């Protein structure tokens, strides 16, 4: 056994324990009895404490010091890159802080769900204040004098900085605002779908569509949760959705979104299982897969024409009189409150709002007491309507309750990457529209698997996208796609 | 912090991690995608390895050496008794063996399920051979020259020995055989229930009955599994059942059985949560709770009279024309193949069969190749009918696949304890029959909670029963109860 072999054996066990943590997280959101929340927080804290000790184990330092990366092959060097990054981050975090964050966020998530159900911001704020305080502490320990927010962002998108993202957002915003204004001034206002769409039919359709997009049920399952998510890597990758019987698109496109995340994890080379390369390389790349499944493929005119017919079969109505009206309803641009129900034009404005607020929270420029007012003011300015109730505003997302600060901007980065990939995909799969018009996305998802998903953590995030597309990722393809698509729908 | 405080803090984290292992086990049987089995085995092995290192941590030895139990209160001394016993057992087991057992049994359970579904003994035997080999190794490491089987038994029933159990079985067997023969010669043969009992109704009724028996849904849930079980302690105690639409009693009484196990865990003093006292004290005492729920209460004439009416409401038929016939059907004595569907008279004969076979396997007097023949021969001798297919014989129970050797006899010990407790309960709750005739068992289950369940691991198993009953447990009350009950039903 060389030091590298010893290190990889140790890492294998750590990865397995991380997967256990995934299972617990999934259970908490889908199956756990309500009264078990406090004990579960203790269980999560104990496991997080074990993981933290492993991630900071002095033997890791010894192995990392003993291994000459230049003597390894490409895969080995990539493994080392991940392990070195993780070790550096972990050794900067005190174990007590790590365990406290696990305990507090586990509890906070339950309190957030109660507050959301009751539309009661005050019920959530004391806990959120505690989470923000702990995340500031975490950021300070990680940043070592650098930017606090960048230190958190780096955990989700290695190599990205708030400055570079803000610059990209600045380039995107005028075009998005311009597009939005032209749409709102177009005089066209497609009707939303109407009708009743029973839960059982929605779930059956969700399963069917996930299957057509290549989701592997032998290694996954679909359940309900308050907020849809994907959990797990390797051969156990589970997705969730939520259902509203008056509005079938929310559930269906949530499922397609999570199917993209799930297909990414399921599509990684099995040889990387339970190693640092065996999971999606960053949240931005992850989101590129969920977004291209959901939007560029799922909300295409071709796929919508199939979906229109299939929904009519399943529910007796697709909720619109004809395929054109259905496609316009699926892509209806509206100044709605909920990020996850947002259209492709407004979506990135939701992200920019959260990005700015959470940067201010972490920097200490904004206090939790003032957050709701800041949210509501900014929302009205950007979207032209007021927040009507907290569950449609500050309480809509689970992220902050579980300590995900620095995560939101990766959604827009994912959209940007999806725009690039879609341009390359159209060139690589000329039958794309014909496939989608039959409800089948497998030629497209097979290309994504071989060009993006299969490599797992082998390359850095931006390099992963560059290799698939043949060019360095920029925001231009996404913006061009949006202009063309919505220009056509709204006759601009 | 004293050494005792340090020890209890360490133990708290260990108990929390043990609960994590419970969640994983539950998930594996109820929710896990089929293709995740191999990865799950790695996850379980990693967690088991962590737990084993904690259970053998040298600091435990230091703390145990530094603490003078005589200076502690009764609770503290009981905690120490559990921790010392666990440490002694754990330090005798090599970590590699412990991890290998976790890995092999996790896989073996899936193979057993496949073999059972396909009625294919040969598919299971190579894995079972491996499990037996590992359990012999485990027993040898634990026994240190003593009896191998006793060493395994001690894990489930501290203080019990195979010799003492065999002696008790020898006293019980003639009376059970005599009762069985009188019943079979009585000329009475109550008809089983007939009809169709849809799954949804069975599950609704199972939930209703569990509620009436005091199961706490805030801290538990009911799902399907191949083999019903109870999982977890403290505030997260889950039960499972299985449903056959042609035979409603199997599901209902399985649920009642697991409700007894679950109520025990839920009934333990919350102050003992995530400590060694916070779980049922032994499998025998656990089984006393499941058995008294299922049999002495659930199969009583009084409760059956309520159930007869309720089933007629739920299903349109109770499967029998009148309450007397229903009660006789519920308590029908028949030489059936399946232990979990067995009647109270034959049940302990099932146990004695398994007890003798597994003692011989562990002692090396019987090889796995010869197990099916040994099972079938013994079964025909004891029950008067032949085994018709492996799933009705050797493949019916999950236990051996997951390494549970030394567990079966605790079922009969539980029956014996239930007999004792029922005698005491009738004296303590004079309204018992009237309560049960209204479908309500809560006065009885409240007595069990305060007299047996609440104390958790505070007293040794036999002492737990003695304190509740006021006398040292013997087999006589169970046998007297069986003679009286079945004498009346069969007119003996």
From TrEMBL, chains A, B:
UniProt-listed Gene3D superfamilies: 1.10.1370.30
Cofactor binding comment, as recorded: Binds 1 zinc ion per subunit.
Keywords: Carboxypeptidase, Hydrolase, Metal-binding, Metalloprotease, Protease, Zinc
Molecular function terms from GO: metal ion binding; metallocarboxypeptidase activity
GO biological process: proteolysis
Record: active site: 258
InterPro entries linked to this entry: Peptidase_M32_Taq
Cofactors: Zn(2+)
Matches recorded under PROSITE patterns: PEPTIDASE_M32
A Pfam family hit: Peptidase_M32
Keyword check for tRNA-binding: no
Broad enzyme group: hydrolase
CDD domains: M32_Taq
Residues reported to bind Zn(2+): 257, 261, 287
Catalytic activity: Release of a C-terminal amino acid with broad specificity, except for -Pro
Function, as annotated: Broad specificity carboxypetidase that releases amino acids sequentially from the C-terminus, including neutral, aromatic, polar and basic residues.
Family: Belongs to the peptidase M32 family.
Name of the molecule in the record: Metal-dependent carboxypeptidase
């Amino acid at each position: 056994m060389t030091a590298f072999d010893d290190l990889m054996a140790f890492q294998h066990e750590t990865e397995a324990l991380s997967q256990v943590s995934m299972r617990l997280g999934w259970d908490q959101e889908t199956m756990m009895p309500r009264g078990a929340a406090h004990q579960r927080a203790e269980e999560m804290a104990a496991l997080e404490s074990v993981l933290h000790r492993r991630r900071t184990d002095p033997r890791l330092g010894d192995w990392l010091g003993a291994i000459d990366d230049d003597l390894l092959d490409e895969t080995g060097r990539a493994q080392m890159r991940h392990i070195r990054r993780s070790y550096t981050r972990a050794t900067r975090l005190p174990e007590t802080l790590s365990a406290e964050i696990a305990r507090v966020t586990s509890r906070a998530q339950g309190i957030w769900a109660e507050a959301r159900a009751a539309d009661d911001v005050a019920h959530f704020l004391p806990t959120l204040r505690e989470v923000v305080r702990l995340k500031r502490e975490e950021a300070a320990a990680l940043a070592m004098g650098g930017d606090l927010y960048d230190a958190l962002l780096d955990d989700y998108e290695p190599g990205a900085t708030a400055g570079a993202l803000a610059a990209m957002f600045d380039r995107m915003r005028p075009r998005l605002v311009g597009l939005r204004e032209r749409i709102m001034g177009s005089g066209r206002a497609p009707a939303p779908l109407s009708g009743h769409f029973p839960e059982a039919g929605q779930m059956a359709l969700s399963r069917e569509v996930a299957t057509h997009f290549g989701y592997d049920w032998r290694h996954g399952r679909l359940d309900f949760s308050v907020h849809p998510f994907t959990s797990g890597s390797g051969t156990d990758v589970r997705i969730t959705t939520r259902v509203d019987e008056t509005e079938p698109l929310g559930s269906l496109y949530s499922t397609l979104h999570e199917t993209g995340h799930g297909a990414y994890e399921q599509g990684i080379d099995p040889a990387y299982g339970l190693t640092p390369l065996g999971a999606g390389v960053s949240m931005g790349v992850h989101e590129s897969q969920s977004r291209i499944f959901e939007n560029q493929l799922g909300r295409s005119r071709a796929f919508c024409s199939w979906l229109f017919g299939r929904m009519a079969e399943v529910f007796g109505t697709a909720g619109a009189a004809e395929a054109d009206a259905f496609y316009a309803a699926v892509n209806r641009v509206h100044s709605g409150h909920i990020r996850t129900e947002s259209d492709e034009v407004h979506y990135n404005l939701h992200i920019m709002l959260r990005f700015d607020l959470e940067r201010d929270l972490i920097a200490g420029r904004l206090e939790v007491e003032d957050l709701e007012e800041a949210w509501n003011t900014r929302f009205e300015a950007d979207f032209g309507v007021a927040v009507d109730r907290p569950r449609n505003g500050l309480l809509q997302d689970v992220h902050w309750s579980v300590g995900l600060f620095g995560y939101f901007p990766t959604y827009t980065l994912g959209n940007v990457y999806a725009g690039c990939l879609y341009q390359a995909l159209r060139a690589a799969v000329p039958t794309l529209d014909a496939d989608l018009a039959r409800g089948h996305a497998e030629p497209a998802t097979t290309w994504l698997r071989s060009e993006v998903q299969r490599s797992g953590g082998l390359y850095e995030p931006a390099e992963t996208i560059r290799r698939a597309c043949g060019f360095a990722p920029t925001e231009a393809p996404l913006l061009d796609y949006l202009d063309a698509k919505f220009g056509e729908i709204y006759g601009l």
